[in-house]
Amino acid sequence: MPTILRIDGYRFFFFSDEHNPKHIHIEKGDGYARIELDTLKVTDSYNLNSKDLKKLVTLVKENNVKLQGAWNEYFKQ
What we know:
Blueprint: E1 3-7, E2 10-13, E3 23-28, E4 31-36, E5 42-46, H1 50-62, H2 64-74
């Protein structure tokens, strides 16, 4: 499971057998979120409050080119 970024203790990663739509998994401690890269929609989360999720969406937006590039390169798209 490739780690793409580490920011403020959050680990941004995807699994080697992922599926569309393009998305990123994010974890820190026991907190977790999954965010779609094209829409920035949070599709799963636990142990994160709304402030944390807002921060994560902002981080995904700011790093979207790198995240999408990593997805495309890894999955040969």
